[in-house]
Amino acid sequence: MTGATRAIADAAPCPCGGGARFGDCCGPVLAGTPARTAEALMRSRYTAFALGDAAHLADSWHPGTRPESLDLEAGLRWVGLEIVDVVAGQPGDRRGVVEFRARWRQGRDAGELHERSRFAFQSGRWWYLDGAVR
């Protein structure tokens, strides 16, 4: 795993765009508190990409589908997240799906990742399984 983690204050707006402060939104999940829902885990993973937190990305990826290595692209900035659809993934569910659009910039280039991600609840926590890029 590579990637330089960028620090963010708890009082700063959360990069996931959920409207809460980082310390009340994705911060606790990145610090190790299990996400309550599949959407909360997906938002924390977006925030981890935005902050360069490769450790959280690896730790939240299901061991059965996680790649051996994870390299974050230097110079790529994640600049916005939109949740398109959420299916299940609530407390008490075993599976969930979160479809999202994440905007990025790299130098003069800009683009969007549109993915429908699958999540599973096992061992008392949500895990990212995989995603289909749209």
UniProtKB/TrEMBL annotation:
Tell me which domain of life the UniProt entry assigns to the organism this sequence originates from. Bacteria
Q: Name one Pfam family in it.
A: YchJ_M-like
Q: Please give the InterPro entries that the UniProt record associates with this protein.
A: NTF2-like_dom_sf (IPR032710), YchJ-like (IPR023006), YchJ-like_M (IPR048469)
- UniProt domain YchJ-like middle NTF2-like: residue ranges: 37-131
HAMAP family under this entry? UPF0225
Q: Which family does it belong to?
A: Belongs to the UPF0225 family.
What is the recorded name of this protein?
UPF0225 protein C7474_1782
Q: Which organism is it from?
A: Microbacterium telephonicum
